[in-house]
Amino acid sequence: MKTTKKRLSLFLALMLTVIMTLTGCTAVQVSGQLQLNKDGSGERTIEGRIAKNDYQDGYGSAYYYLKQHGDDLAAYIKDVYTEKVPGSEEWLMVAVDDSADDWEVVKLTFAFTSFEDYTEKLTSLVYDETAAASFATPSFGQDDAGNITYSESTGVMTAIFKSLQTTLMADDAMFDINCTKDGTALNDGSADLQSLTDSGVELMKPENGMVMTISVDGGEETAMAEANGTYTFGAVGDKEPAETTCVLYYTFDDTLANSGTEADNDLVFGTGSTGDGPVYEDGLDGKAIKFDGATYLASPNKDFNYEEMTISFDYRMDAYTQTDSGANMVIVPAGLGALGAGVIDVEFIKEADAEGVQLLGKMNSADWQTQDKLFSEGYLLEAHMGEWHNYTLVYQNEYDDSGEINDSYVYMYIDGKLASRSRLAVAAGLTYSLGLYDNTAENANGGFNVGGYYEAETVKRGCTGALDNLRVFNGALSEEEVNTLCYVNKVDKEYDPAVVDTLDTAGETTESTEQTSAAVTDEANTTESGSNTAVVVVVVVVIVVAAAVIVVLVSKKKKTKK
Q1: 494-531, pLDDT tens digit by residue?
Q2: Distance between CA atoms of 12 and 6, rounded to whole angstroms?
Q3: 447 Ramachandran zone, left/alpha/beta (phi>0; psi -120 to 50)
Q4: 460 near 272, Cβ under 8 Å?
Q5: Where are the beta strands (DSSP E) in 293-446?
Q6: Residues 272, 356: one domain?
Q7: Residues 224 and 96 occupy one common structural domain
Q8: Cα first-last separation, the chain
Q9: Are residue 371 and residue 286 in the same domain, yes or no?
Q10: Which residue, 312, 426, 340, is CA-closest to 135?
C-alpha cells in the first residue's frame, strides 16, 4: 500500500511539473541594455529570445514556426527595417545567434550621438500602429554635477518586438502556423494568428536574467529599478515605497468634487446627458448621485496610472438595460482615444451565455484588443435589485526577491467579503490605468467616465441606479482595509459568499445556499486569450492518465490478493 501511494505521488508530481512548465512558456522574451555617456551619446541594444521548446501550444514552440533562422533570419529582419524605417540601414545592426539549445537570440543594436538622436531612432523601430499603443518616449536628465537620470516604460521593448512580430507572422514565406517537428504538428489547434500575436511577446522572466541594464561612461553595468511600470536609473535611490493613498474620493454629497489627494480632479456633468445637471438623492452614507441610463459624469483630461490599484464604490441598481454589448458602465475609458495597455473598466453586464447580470472587472492587454475579465460568478444583480452594496476591485501583483513582478491578480469583494479572484493572463504585469490622456478635438473629455459614456451624440451603456462613495487608491488594499470602506451595517442584505443566486424559468430570482469553492478561483482568466487552451487539454489528459494509473494499480493489488 505504501509503495502504491508513493508511486502515485511521484506520478502526480511529475504531471504537475509538466503542467507548470507548459503554463510558463512564452514565444519571445525581451530585454535591453543601454550604454549612456554624460554627453548624451551612447549605444542601445534590444534583445529578443525566441523559445525552442517543442510544446504543442503554439507559444513555447515559436522557433519552429519560423522558416528562416540564423544569418538568413538576420538578413530578413534587416530588409524589414530597411523597408519600414527608411534610413535605418545606415545605423541599425541586426544579429541572430542560433547556437543555444533553448533560445534563438535576435539582437538589435544602434549607436546615437545625442538623446534626441536616441529617442528618434528608438521610436522609429515601433512602426506598427497597434504595437505603438504601449510605447512611451523615455526621459533623460542631468543635474549641475553631471549626475544622470533615465527612465523608460516597460512597454518600450515589447512594442518594438510586437512590430517585428506582426510583419513576420503576416509573411507566408517566413511564418508557418501549421509547422511540424520530426513529423509531429506543433500547433494542437489552440493557437491562431490573433492569439499568438496577443500573447507572443513579454519582458524577460527573472529566472532568465536582468530585463533592463544601464552603464554610464563605460562604468559597471547595473540593473535598472522597476516601479509603476517604469524602469528608472539614478532617481530611485534609497527611498521607501510610496504609501497607498486614496487619490480619488467622490462622496456625491451634493457635489462632484474630489476629496482625494488628486484634489484637482473634480468630475463634471457629462456632455449630452439628460437634464440640466446632476441629480442627488439619499445614499448609503449622506447623498448619492442618481443615474437614469442617459446621464454620466466625466473626469478632466487626466489619466491615473499605478503599478497596483483599488477601486471601491457603493451602488444600488434600480434597473438594468440590455445594451449593444450587454454592459451598463460604472467606470469606463472616455472613448476610443482612451483605450490602451492596462486600461481598466468596471461594469454590470449580461452576456449572451450568462444566466444573469454580473459585476465585471476588465483590463486591457498590451495591444488593448484582448482583456482579462473577472466576473461575480454566483452573484446576479437581478437578485439584489434596489439593494445597496459595496463593490471593491483590487488589482495586485506578486513580486520576487529582486522586485520583479511574478504574477498579477484581481480580487473582487462584495460588502467586504471576497467573492472571486483571478490570475491575469494577457494583462499581467502592466500598469493599471483609468484611461489614457487625450485632449484632442475628437475626444475632448479624455480620461475616464462614470456611469456611461458619450459617442455619436448619444449616451451609451448607461447605468440606472444610485452611486455613492466612489474611491480609487494608488495601491492594493488588503481584505482588512477593504472592510473599513464598507458600511455593512447599512446595506440592505449583507453579501454571503455561500449563497449562489439563480434564476427560475420565469425569470424570477431564487437563491441557493449551497457552498461552492468555485466562488474563489486562482485560475488565469482566459475568456479572450487562446494561450491557455492547450493547458486545459493537458490537464484533462493528465487527469485521465492519472485515473488509468490508479485503476491499473488497484487491479494489480486485487490480483495479488487472489
Answers
A1: 999 999 998 865 455 554 444 333 333 343 343 333 33
A2: 10
A3: left
A4: no
A5: 297-298, 305-306, 309-319, 327-333, 344-349, 358-364, 371-375, 388-399, 405-414, 417-423, 432-433
A6: yes
A7: yes
A8: 16
A9: yes
A10: 340
Q: For the residues of 141-186, what is the DSSP string, one character each?
A: EE-TT--EEEEEETHHHHHHHHHHHHHHHH-TTTB-TT-EETTEES
Query: 148-170 pLDDT, tens per residue?
Result: 888 898 889 999 999 998 899 88
Query: What pLDDT score does 220 carry?
Result: 85
The total number of structural domains that make up the chain: 3
Could you tell me the three cell numbers for 197?
500575436
Q: Specify whether the backbone of 66 is left (phi greater than 0), alpha (psi in -120 to 50) or beta.
A: beta
CA distance 424 to 481: 22
HEC per residue, 381-420: HHHHCCCEEEEEEEEEEEECCCCCEEEEEEEEEECCEEEE
The CA-atom distances, in angstroms, between 97 and each of 65, 76, 103 are: 17, 14, 9
539: phi then psi, degrees, rounded to nearest 5: -60, -45
Average pLDDT over residues 482-489: 85
Whether residue 404 sits in one domain with residue 332: yes
Amino acid at 191: A
Q: What is the DSSP letter of 532?
A: G
- Residue whose C-alpha cell reads 549605444 in the numeric block: 43
The neighbouring-strand residues paired with 373 are 362
CA distances from 519 to 69, 315, 434, 510 (A): 47, 21, 27, 18
Cell numbers that stand for 524 in this block:
488565469
CATH number, residue 447: 2.60.120.200
19 located within any domain? no
Domain housing 548: 533-562
For 207, the 3-state DSSP assignment is helix
**Dihedral sign (CA 78, 82, 84, 87):** positive
